[in-house]
Amino acid sequence: MTPRALPSNPMTVRADEHGAVRVFATDREEAITRDGMGHLIGADVDTERVEVIDTKDIAALGLATYLAEGYGIRDEDLDDGAEALNAIDGCVALIPTSAFKEKEATLSPSPPLRFVGIYLEAEGARPRAMAETQSSRMLPELEPAPEPDPTPPVKRSYAIILVALLLSAALVLWAVL
Question: Percentage helix, strand, coil, to 5, in the chain?
């Protein structure tokens, strides 16, 4: 198995690309949101997969450690640029290739966004869709579960307590009489 390599042009996303995270940043005074990310990078993205972080929120951890622990980026891939990543002061956008919905894209980030780098996620980080098989198409349709009864059932423990109280009362009356 040959190791995966970074794309030759980090601004081009291939349809079959997976396992890479592109990092973009802005200066402190320029806040960005993930909803406007497609416009800022010039490509259609699934904004639910884009992560926008203010670096002051992860200052104690550092961006390099955040990428290593959150995305499985290997330490040796971050070593050369860890100091620069941790020095970023502003908002950071982390865009995994899964955000591009397996479509080709050419990125053209517009100000205030600037490209910082591209990093490979750990092998196997991307779940693969299972192929449909003949046997899976032949599964019977399941009946929906019945609606639960809105009135709670009488608990057995209450009945046991009631019987114990009645027996205790009967013993007390028998002892007194």
Answer: 35, 15, 45
